[in-house]
Amino acid sequence: MSKLSHSDILQTINNGLIASCQPVDDGPLDKPEIVAAMAQASIIGGAAGLRIEGVDNLKATRPYISAPIIAIVKRDLSDSPIRITPFLEDIEALAAAGADIIAVDGTNRPRPVDIESAVKKIKELGCLAMADCSTLEEGLYCQQLGFDIIGSTMSGYTGGDVPAEPDYQLVKDLRAAGCYVMAEGRYNTPELAKVAIEIGANCVTVGSALTRLEHMVSGFVKAIHSANA
Ligand SMILES: CC(=O)N[C@H](C=O)[C@@H](O)[C@H](O)[C@H](O)COP(=O)(O)O
């Protein structure tokens, strides 16, 4: 378990890369021991922290990692679009498994448990709270509720086509409003991650480009095939 204070955790990840070690669901890399290996490799590469999905993956990873871990549970619910850490039981399980920071969906959509109870539970359990938001309005509401980190994670994922680019404007607006900002979502190259910091993000999370190998390989394959099309 990390022994850092809350302010040390925020300081440790400030200006840093968070490697989101989330393999493709049910793919060959989707195994706790592989997630733990990805996490260690990411730290060797210089990541300041990690984002880990699932209690079993967190339990497998935590013993090897002293850097801050942002933990989530993803669920596909039949009666709500909320996927990221929807239940208080998920928060309890992540805290017990050694999360430093617990992220929950921060969007303004129908949810099984109100967000006020979620942030209260995270704080009671001694963790930092992160809100995965899609708009400035949601981010400001979550900031006001006491969330420590506001992420642009859900921008582009609440309906319609997913844009190709990251939502830079949301990052700028959240920072201008005084939030501690995590740029997250479609920062798929080192250059884009650099832009995130340049426009004011405190830190940037990169997932697919680091740990969804199937997606990266298929991107190369498509590009190669299109050469002679
Ligand atoms: C919308 C949603 O559910 N985002 C998830 C949150 O945990 C992950 O699927 C993303 O991989 C993560 O946010 C990092 O983003 P990117 O993979 O674009 O670097």
Automatic annotation (TrEMBL):
<dbReference type="InterPro" id="IPR013785">
    <property type="entry name" value="Aldolase_TIM"/>
</dbReference>
<dbReference type="GO" id="GO:0005829">
    <property type="term" value="C:cytosol"/>
</dbReference>
<dbReference type="GO" id="GO:0019262">
    <property type="term" value="P:N-acetylneuraminate catabolic process"/>
</dbReference>
<dbReference type="Pfam" id="PF04131">
    <property type="entry name" value="NanE"/>
</dbReference>
<comment type="similarity">
    <text>Belongs to the NanE family.</text>
</comment>
<dbReference type="GO" id="GO:0047465">
    <property type="term" value="F:N-acylglucosamine-6-phosphate 2-epimerase activity"/>
</dbReference>
<comment type="pathway">
    <text>Amino-sugar metabolism; N-acetylneuraminate degradation; D-fructose 6-phosphate from N-acetylneuraminate: step 3/5.</text>
</comment>
<dbReference type="GO" id="GO:0006053">
    <property type="term" value="P:N-acetylmannosamine catabolic process"/>
</dbReference>
<keyword id="KW-0413">Isomerase</keyword>
<comment type="function">
    <text>Converts N-acetylmannosamine-6-phosphate (ManNAc-6-P) to N-acetylglucosamine-6-phosphate (GlcNAc-6-P).</text>
</comment>
<protein>
    <recommendedName>
        <fullName>Putative N-acetylmannosamine-6-phosphate 2-epimerase</fullName>
        <ecNumber>5.1.3.9</ecNumber>
    </recommendedName>
</protein>
<dbReference type="InterPro" id="IPR007260">
    <property type="entry name" value="NanE"/>
</dbReference>
<dbReference type="InterPro" id="IPR011060">
    <property type="entry name" value="RibuloseP-bd_barrel"/>
</dbReference>
<dbReference type="GO" id="GO:0005975">
    <property type="term" value="P:carbohydrate metabolic process"/>
</dbReference>
<keyword id="KW-0119">Carbohydrate metabolism</keyword>
